[in-house]
Design goal:
There is one protein chain. By secondary structure, the protein is an alpha/beta fold. It folds into two domains: 186 residues, NAD(P)-binding Rossmann-like Domain (Rossmann fold, 3-Layer(aba) Sandwich); 210 residues, Rossmann fold (3-Layer(aba) Sandwich), CATH 3.40.50. The strands form two sheets. Strands 3-2-1-4-5-6-7-8 form an eight-stranded mixed beta sheet, sandwiched between helices. Strands 11-10-9-12-13-14 form a six-stranded parallel beta sheet. Strand 13, helix 18 and strand 14 form a beta-alpha-beta unit. The N and C termini lie far apart (59 Å). 47% of the residues are buried. The structure holds nicotinamide-adenine-dinucleotide. The site of nicotinamide-adenine-dinucleotide (NAD) has 27 residues, from helix 1 and helix 5. Nicotinamide-adenine-dinucleotide binds next to helix 1 and helix 5.
Length: 431
């Protein structure tokens, strides 16, 4: 099948590469000329496992090409996926300008295509925005919503092996085409109307954000009772009614989706005359959580102005270069605000973090450099090279071996018995 994918970020590229790998002909579109040049050169503008290799393979075989000519992409495709960003407006509401622009760009090139919204959009968007814009154009089309559930760090793998496929349709016409496209995918497929498919994406993300926040709330309680939240969650996860993922306590969720989607839903609900307090409280708890890392640091070092502290992990999680809403931003800003000398390191996200221009930071060339002569280190992601560090690395390299761990990367007994001050969110030793 001939597939057009508009928006060549995490979701667009994962979609394009997955369908390309399955033998379809794919054209990627974007307004960013540099991204398009990179793609046609077989280089991935997004750091994700498998992207670069698959891209080289598909551009080499002519199965994938990229263009900024969105109308041409639309006219030569049978199915067009809209994968553009849907960021937050200053008031937290959803910014649909990229969806509107991309829809406008294809509106005069349609002749029977299925236009599929894969970006995360609020219920009513396909009906109220996409169809409205397309009606001003020419030709035949039908519109579907097919929300994406991939996780950064395993985007391609998730696109090829999803838990479920949701297809929302205005009139059922596009469903058949999408079922044909997804026929090799061995997972439940749920067909709904457009608004329901759009809402399923929000309901899923809100629930995942709630699960993480619930664990963090439990962690904060456990600390007060002198109990280890990781031991507690081991017991909780044995309950068959509770799926075990997204229950590890830490410094809060980051990334491009949860905060944006929860804020968008709050803003939209307010417009409908309803205040979703559970969702709002989730965001409040999440905002406060990274600052707990600073409290732990202060409890270990006493006064922190002038101290030398390393922060390991700048992306919002390991295996990605994405720094959008990373807890590291809040942690680093708080440290700088308290007069700490901050050294940072990340295996993939150094350039992206640097481009945030957060302040006067030392960027370490490697992890050992980051630890050398530091008064303390804050572990912010479970990147392989951090998890592989042992007590001897901290003791051998640091001025004082104080490790504040937001990811429970190590066994507390090993660290403490080796003479390390090892503190983390939700542990009995952190009081
Ligand atoms: N990143 C994730 O983990 C993830 C997971 C599921 C769903 N989503 C949703 O998918 C959507 C895309 O997310 P992403 O992370 O891939 O975003 P991204 O920022 O990585 O990529 C978006 C791309 O769209 C391009 N773009 C913007 N306006 C355009 C236009 N008018 N025409 C063509 N291209 C345009 C941008 O240049 C950019 O390359 C969002 O709605 C997001 O909420 C993201």
């Amino acid at each position: 099948m001939k597939i057009g994918v508009i928006g060549s970020g995490y979701v667009g590229l994962a979609t394009a590469l997955a369908f390309g790998k399955l033998g379809h002909e794919v054209v990627c579109g974007d307004i960013d000329e540099d991204k398009i040049a990179m793609l046609n050169d077989g280089r991935s503008p997004v750091a994700e496992p498998g992207f670069e290799e698959t891209l080289k393979e598909l551009t080499g075989s002519g199965k994938l090409k990229a263009t900024i000519d969105i109308p041409a992409l639309a006219s030569e495709s049978e199915v067009i996926f809209l994968c553009v960003g849907t960021p937050s407006l200053p008031d937290g509401g959803i910014d649909l300008s990229a969806i509107e622009d991309a829809t406008q760009a294809i509106s005069c090139s349609l002749d029977g295509q299925v236009v599929v919204v894969k970006s995360t959009v609020l219920p009513g968007t396909a009906r109220g925005v996409v169809l409205k814009v397309l009606k001003g154009g020419s030709g035949g089309y039908t519109v579907c919503n097919n929300p994406e559930f991939l996780r950064e760090g395993s985007a391609l793998e998730d696109s090829l092996d999803p838990d479920r496929i949701i297809i929302g349709s205005i009139d059922g016409k596009g469903t058949e085409k999408l079922l044909e496209l997804y026929k090799g995918f061995d997972c439940p497929k749920l067909m709904t109307d457009l608004d329901t498919a759009e809402m399923i994406k929000y309901a899923s993300n809100i629930f995942l954000a709630l699960k993480i926040t619930y664990s963090n709330e439990m962690a904060n309680l456990c600390e007060r009772f002198g109990v280890d939240v990781y031991d507690v969650m081991t017991g909780v996860k044995l309950d068959k009614r509770i799926a075990p993922k997204y229950l590890d306590a830490g410094a809060g969720f980051g990334g491009s989706c949860f905060e944006k989607d929860l804020s968008a839903m709050i803003a939209a609900a307010k417009d409908e005359g309803y205040y979703p307090s559970l969702i709002a409280t989730t965001l409040d708890i999440n905002d406060a959580q990274p600052l707990r890392m600073i409290e732990l640091l202060e409890s270990a070092l006493g006064s922190i102005p002038g101290k030398d502290v390393a922060v390991l992990g700048l992306a919002f999680k390991e295996d990605t270069a994405d720094v959008r809403n990373s807890r590291a931003i809040i942690i680093v800003q708080a440290l700088l605000g308290k007069g700490v000398n901050v050294t940072v390191h990340d295996p993939l996200a150094m350039d992206n973090f640097r481009s945030l221009c957060i302040g006067d930071l030392n960027y370490a060339g490697d992890v050992k450099d980051a630890l050398r002569d530091k008064d303390a280190v804050i572990i912010q992601t479970n990147a392989d090279e951090y998890v592989k560090l042992g007590p001897e690395d901290f003791k051998g390299l640091m001025r004082s071996p104080v490790v504040i761990d937001g990811r429970r990367a190590y066994e507390p007994e090993d660290m403490i018995s080796a003479g390390i001050t090892y503190l983390g969110i939700g542990w009995k030793n952190s009081k």
